Write a sequence for this structure.
């Protein structure tokens, strides 16, 4: 069985929903994971923000606006009066439920319930359309099987047991529709898997049932070898190793969330990235296979700050790096890149929430300097150190760009450069010209 996940733009209009149904109605059994319609989750967060600010009038105005938008989709999606009325009744019930949160105490618990309604809206609308078309299908509520444990991590054994039981109770259906993003925690409370959570849901479901393949359908034809918004003449990468895909996702490739494919990786299930706007495009296949001797792609991570700590006490002093890293740990700030010398260490971070406190602590250890408005450029591929010349090929390409830091050797799959944000476009274009567009 395959798992197919469709993002918000893929189900963003009635026309798109119908096209998704055409794609999935091919006679093969599958589980289909849907995101909320594009724009819905942001609007639900906006409603929640009004309620946090104790402004029920503002919240109700936005609820009414969102409800009107959904009601306008009914005539375009359904052909029969029966399913038009059925969906209208469902939408009225859903938005009345959302309105009920304007009349009481509002906390993070209520917010998580509200922002999860987008997936419930989209899946029910698509399921009703499947039923109207006479397609053998079932709606599987994610809140009945998707759960995290007491540490906030997915409870894969619970998911596997519950999901298989629910599917067995639904007999042999061609299509099973379920929600991405939403889940329950170990205490039964409604939770979510954060942004990018629908991809994570698909990966977890695939791992739970031992799927043959997980397909992530978006509005771009696979993962490109560079950022098409900035660089000319980019092209999709046909194959990636899971580690390569994770590196690209972490360092800026927006098509995937960095952690969402981990369950598929551990289960050995290939993940295919496909384009709903161009279903015949081959896309990108991600698996545990590695293509040797190939540089695959480049990505960039913005809003980076570099911090340098220089201290003569560091020379031959054990424990110095531990003290530095403990400061970042105490302020829950992760480090992207690290370089060291005999008397100094440079690190880069992307979260400056506690920057002033971190700097105050670091100044107890040495002299501290900061470079803001930086960018990490990451070159990804088979960069094992035995591949002679690969690292020099990447660095030679950057010879016209001032480089603040270089990180190589921590992974067999990437070499990273820290440059000024102003040099980002120049660096990305240069890398494309020399690595891919020869």
């Amino acid at each position: 069985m395959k798992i197919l996940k469709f993002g918000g733009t893929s189900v963003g209009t009635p026309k798109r929903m119908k096209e998704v149904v055409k794609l999935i109605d091919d006679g093969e059994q599958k589980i289909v994971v849907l995101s909320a319609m594009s724009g819905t989750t942001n609007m639900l967060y906006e409603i929640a923000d009004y309620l946090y600010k104790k402004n029920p009038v503002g919240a109700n105005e936005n609820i009414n606006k969102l409800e009107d938008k959904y009601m306008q989709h009914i005539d375009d999606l359904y052909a029969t009066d029966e399913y038009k009325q059925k969906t209208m009744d469902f939408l009225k019930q859903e938005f009345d439920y959302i309105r009920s949160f304007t009349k009481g105490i509002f906390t993070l618990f209520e917010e998580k319930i509200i922002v999860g309604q987008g997936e419930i809206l989209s899946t029910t609308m698509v399921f009703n359309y499947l039923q109207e078309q006479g397609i053998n299908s079932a709606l599987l509520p994610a809140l009945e099987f998707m759960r995290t444990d007491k540490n906030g991590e997915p409870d894969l054994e619970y998911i596997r047991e519950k999901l298989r039981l629910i599917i067995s109770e639904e007999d042999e259906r061609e299509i099973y529709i379920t929600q991405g993003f939403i889940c329950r925690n170990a205490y039964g409370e409604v939770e979510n898997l954060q942004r990018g959570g629908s991809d994570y849901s698909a990966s977890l479901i695939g791992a739970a049932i031992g799927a043959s393949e997980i397909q992530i359908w978006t509005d771009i034809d696979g993962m490109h070898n560079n950022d098409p918004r900035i660089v000319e003449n980019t092209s999709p990468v046909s194959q990636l190793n899971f580690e390569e895909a994770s590196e690209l996702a972490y360092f800026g490739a927006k098509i995937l969330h960095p952690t969402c494919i981990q369950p598929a990786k551990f289960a050995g299930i290939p993940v295919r990235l496909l384009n709903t706007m161009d279903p015949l495009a081959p896309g990108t296949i991600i698996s545990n296979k590695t293509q040797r001797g190939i540089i695959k792609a480049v990505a960039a991570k913005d809003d980076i700050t570099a911090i340098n700590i220089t201290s003569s006490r560091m020379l031959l002093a054990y424990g110095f790096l531990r003290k530095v890293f403990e400061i970042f740990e105490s302020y829950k700030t992760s480090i992207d890149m690290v370089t060291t010398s005999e008397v100094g260490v440079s690190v880069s971070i992307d979260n400056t929430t506690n920057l002033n406190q971190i700097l105050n602590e670091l100044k107890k250890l040495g002299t501290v300097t900061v470079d803001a408005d930086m960018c990490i450029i990451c070159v990804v591929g088979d960069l094992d150190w035995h591949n002679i010349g690969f690292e020099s090929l990447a660095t030679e390409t950057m010879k016209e760009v001032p480089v603040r830091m270089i990180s190589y050797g921590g992974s067999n799959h990437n070499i990273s450069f820290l440059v000024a944000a102003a040099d980002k476009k120049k660096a990305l274009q240069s890398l494309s010209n020399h690595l891919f567009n020869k």
Summary: The chain has a mean pLDDT of 91.
